[in-house]
Write a structure and sequence with these properties.
The structure holds two protein chains of two kinds. Chain A has no helices and eleven strands. In chain A, the strands form two sheets. In chain A, strands 2, 4, 5, 6, 9, 10 and 11 form a seven-stranded mixed sheet that branches. A four-stranded antiparallel sheet of chain A has the order 1-3-8-7, with no helix packed on it. Chain B is mainly beta. Helix content of chain B is 0%, strand content 54%. The chains are: A mainly beta, B mainly beta. Chains A and B meet through strand 5, strand 9 and strand 10 of A and strand 5, strand 6 and strand 11 of B.
Chain lengths: 114, 112
């Protein structure tokens, strides 16, 4: 089992550039979550999908952030334009639906915006 | 919406000492409770979980947690820590939807 796969693992970009983070959930999982982790704010839920449909995007910080899940095996989180305050580690997690099931986290993408 | 409170931001202790991390949540309904661990530079991994049955739950690496419904608590314990337990520990609560609410995390540093 490959687990949750995220790419890239590290991303360094300049302010104003578009950034796309990618996630492949565990096969068979029907819920997918995007989190952001910073020293100041800890672990924040940005958005989650169930059966490819966005259920709650209230954690998305602003319109510069968007997420898609075109099929059950792929999701993207896009930041356009990026800003230095977006620097963080972004985690993707997947699970088998309801919250009594464990969420499996990917290795994360460390984003640095200069 | 539920909220999760972890009492300690940073705990420092010596090897072989006992560890207890506090976690309280605010939600009156049925909850599912988790403890995750994040080792330095790694992703979150599940330590243990509770959703019904015996309120004393045993997890991996000698950790256990006790669910006390009347206190809305789910404290994590380990009788004797090792240097390799140095990590950040997150309590999480799920209720009647898909998502989990995470606490702010507790950094545990174990000195050899």
């Amino acid at each position: 089992d490959a687990g949750v796969i995220q790419s890239p693992r590290h991303e360094v970009t300049e302010m104003g550039q578009e950034v796309t983070l990618r996630c492949k959930p565990i096969s068979g999982h029907n819920s997918l979550f995007w989190y952001r982790q910073t020293m100041m704010r800890g672990l924040e839920l940005l958005i989650y999908f169930n059966n490819n449909v966005p259920i709650d995007d209230s954690g998305m910080p602003e319109d510069r952030f968007s997420a898609k899940m075109p099929n059950a095996s792929f999701s993207t989180l896009k930041i356009q334009p990026s800003e230095p305050r977006d620097s963080a580690v972004y985690f993707c997690a997947s699970s088998l639906g309801y919250s009594y099931n464990e969420q499996f986290f990917g290795p994360g993408t460390r984003l640095t915006v200069l | 919406a539920q909220s999760v409170s972890q009492h300690n931001h940073h705990v420092i202790l010596s090897e072989a000492a006992s560890l207890e991390l506090g976690c309280n949540y605010s939600y009156g309904g049925t909850v599912n409770l988790f403890w995750y661990v994040q080792y330095p530079g790694q992703h979150l991994q599940l330590l243990l979980k509770y959703f019904s049955g015996d309120p004393l739950v045993k997890g991996i690496k000698g950790f256990e947690a006790e669910f006390i419904k009347s206190k809305f608590s789910f404290n994590l314990r380990k009788p004797s820590v090792q240097w390799s337990d140095t990590a950040e520990y997150f309590c999480a609560v799920g209720s009647d939807d898909y998502k989990l609410s995470f606490g702010a995390g507790t950094t545990v540093t174990v000195r050899a």
